[in-house]
Amino acid sequence: SQTIHQWPATLVQPVGSPLSLECTVEGTSNPNLYWYRQAAGRGLQLLFYSVGIGQISSEVPQNLSASRPQDRQFILSSKKLLLSDSGFYLCAWCRGGNQPQHFGDGTRLSIL
Amino acid sequence: DQQVKQNSPSLSVQEGRISILNCDYTNSMFDYFLWYKKYPAEGPTFLISISSIKDKNEDGRFTVFLNKSAKHLSLHIVPSQPGDSAVYFCAASAQGTYKYIFGTGTRLKVLA
């Protein structure tokens, strides 16, 4: 069966510090991978998605970036965090078009 | 531009009664629709989906109805149980885009 791992579960970072959140998927190959953010009281905002190694599509211009160094690894990064980057970050995978996405447990990021 | 809308931020239902959650969309290219359930501090869990070639899909207590002409879908939960209390998100995707657009969610509270 397929599983998705996302870490850390919680993170507190100062403004201006860097960020690296990691997500890995097991039990499948060549998944589509996604990063979402849920701000307090808001819906799920798609940040990045990838349909293959090294391929990244960005949905929202911001100071975050994503990379996919391996088939089942998806990384969300920032060089300098802003207060507005606080939120609940979710990684998801799916097999392809018209297939349900499956989510990790999320990372609660607080910027101080 | 909110392409997927859930206009009711919250809903309260008595245990044993029917819960009806609604979702509207604007993009006529959407051809695959999903419902997710989310508990606090967890990732969303896939519940049920429907393709645009159908108007109804049923799985146990959960039924999704799709009205393409009205660009509207709904999730029916019968009978509602206290464990169903969560935030419910609808999502939509268009063939070939690899993207899933989420609504802002409806918080369901099932009263015992």
- Major beta-sheet overview of chain B: 6 strands, mixed
**Cα end-to-end separation of chain B:** 38 Å
Global mean pLDDT of chain A: 92
Percent range for β-strand residues of chain A: over 45%
Distinct helical segment count of chain A? 0
Percent in strands of chain B: over 45%
- The number of helices of chain B is 0
Whole-angstrom Rg of chain A: 13 Å
Q: Provide the residue-averaged pLDDT of chain B.
A: 95
Annotation, overall tally of beta strands of chain B: 11
Structural class of chain B: mainly beta
Globally, the shape of chain B reads globular
Question: Total number of β-strand segments of chain A?
Answer: 11
Q: Structural class of chain A, please?
A: mainly beta
Order of helices and strands of chain A: EEEEEEEEEEE
Largest sheet of chain A: 7 strands, mixed
- Classify the oligomer: heterodimer
Inertia-based shape of chain A: globular
Q: What this model shows, in words?
A:
The complex is a heterodimer of chains A (112) and B (112). Chain A is mainly β and 112 residues long. Chain A has no helices and eleven strands. In chain A, strands 2, 4, 5, 6, 9, 10 and 11 form a seven-stranded mixed sheet that branches. Chain A has a four-stranded antiparallel sheet with strand order 1-3-8-7, with no helix packed on it. In chain A, a hairpin with a 5-residue loop joins β4 (32-38) and β5. Chain A starts with a strand and ends with a strand. The relative contact order of chain A is 0.33. Chain B is an all-beta fold and 112 residues long. The termini of chain B are far apart. Chain A binds chain B through residues 6, 32, 34, 36, 42-46, 49, 51, 57, 59, 88, 90, 92, 97-98, 100-106, 108, and chain B through 6, 31-32, 34, 36, 41-46, 49, 51, 89, 91, 93, 95-96, 98-105.
